[in-house]
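Hi L.,

You mentioned the student needs an example of a multi-chain input paired with its predicted structure. This one should do, with 593 residues in total across all chains.
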Amino acid sequence: MHRSVARRLLRYSFFFSSSSSCATNQTPFLPIRIATPGFRFRFLSSATSPFPFPFPPDPSDSNSNDDFSARNRSDTHTSSSSGGTSTTPPRANYEEEQARVLAASLHHVIRSGWTEAAMIAGARDIGVSPSIVGAISRKEGALVEYFMDECLQKLIDIIDSGELQLQDLVPSERIAKLIKVRLQMQAPYISKWPQALSIQAQPSNISTSFKQRAMLVDEFWHASNDEGSGVDWYLKRTVVGGIYSATEIYMLTDNSTDFDDTWTFLNERVRDAFDLKKTYQEVKYFAEAVGAGLGQGFTKKKGF
Amino acid sequence: MSARVVARRLGRKLLPRFAPAATLHSHATSFGFKEVNEEEKSKLVGNVFTKVATNYDIMNDFMSGGLHRLWKERMVSKLSPFPGMKHLDVAGGTGDVAFRILETINSVNRRAAEDILEDDLQEETQIYVCDINPNMLDVGKKRAQQRGLGDMGSLVWVEGDAENLTFKDGSMDGYTIAFGIRNVTHIEKVLAEAYRVLKKGGRFLCLELSHVDTPVFKQLYDYYSFSVIPVLGELVAGDRDSYQYLVESVRRFPPQEVFASMIADAGFQKVEYENLVGGVVAIHSGLKI
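Structure written out for the whole complex:
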């Protein structure tokens, strides 16, 4: 799953490496999970060096440090004798376990909401002590982010499998279809989705949720085979981000069967956007024509 | 790299001189700045706490200016207790941490009962308070009665040694030790026992007086600990020596990074620590998977 994201990002960076104006745009869209540091790893790597920690000099007793250094020396022995085999797997283990707890918690979200209670119930389900929830930083935030990541993965998998048959559609339909597929994923959680949005908007979570949305919008444009660059790049992403968010909000209060009203709304907004693009181009041509005409008039006048 | 080479060279030079001494005093340990026998240390620590038990909480308030309440509060909020939890608080004789955990769970419980049906909550919350010193436990029991928590059955008072716990493997969701691990003879044994009794996913939290590194603040803190605290101890509790031991034992305790690596060596994952008040106290945490 992660490999496919990485592959895409790589392809993406390769694609744009020729145009220098867009190279800077990639930095905000690095995969988020890779950035989380492993604390244990740091400690272990420092414990293997003989003088890893600064010992505060003790003014009143010169012998007092012997105990520390002796103990530390024995530590070094034990950690080096236990070998490198125990260092890397446990770290992955912890993250795996956390992901398992979060995945199990999603079953409880419909009943308990995006809360610690859902996470405690999820941990109980898979036989892990609910204490682990205390070790997850930004608890509810982590749960919503996990869900967003999973949905993005699912979307990428669906696109890669080719079952959407995007190549048969025009760009506006492609965008509309992709947004619809993505929003359908959060349909089961629709009664609790306002809570998720408010969690995403909290100051401590907002940077991650912004990144996730940017990645999602990027994915939409990718899948619709857009190859544009330049100032347009930002404009397009802003517009699709706007359409996605507007539809997401519309969906919250939609009571029609299978969210029919939402999809109608979505199609209209996408059409509006593409019309706007057309209008923008028309205005541009018109302005160019007027400019050319004026210029002509001016030179004529001068010559006259 | 070069430091390592130098260290090895130094070690080679020093080893022959210290090796016989080390084998001779292999059972020596520290009691404050004094070197004592291992058996003697536990006896001496026992004496200290028997002497200070009655004034323990008053002295904590005096010495930390009431800050120790905030520190304990912080540790409990890091623990994030939940209803139905089995928790072990070691060296928590006067019940300070246990009461806080219980109160947090009760408030969580009330909140949870409002919006969700906790049908899977047959398990009752149980907090075990374990202390090696019966005098400290007596103080705790008395306080539990005064607070009206004595009859609820959620608090279990156990007299026991942190290095040799009587609880079964994998029986606890949480393990806390506040201002206690400094006083034990073998820190490694305590950590190994903590790891043993915790369930998969259980957490270890340790609140302990630690080391200050900020230059000016360090001098101030040293002056305060060596000149003010023993005097305070004499004036308030009438016991200078016990508080002299306290400040000395803080200096003998491993620095934050070393202690963190010890926790990691015991098998815990996601080992983190947070310094409070510039390192006067530190909260270490670890997760068992």
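You could point out the following to them. Residues 138-282 of chain A form a domain with the Tetracycline Repressor; domain 2 fold (CATH 1.10.357.10). Confidence is low (pLDDT under 50) at residues 3-7, 9-90 of chain A.

Best wishes,
N.
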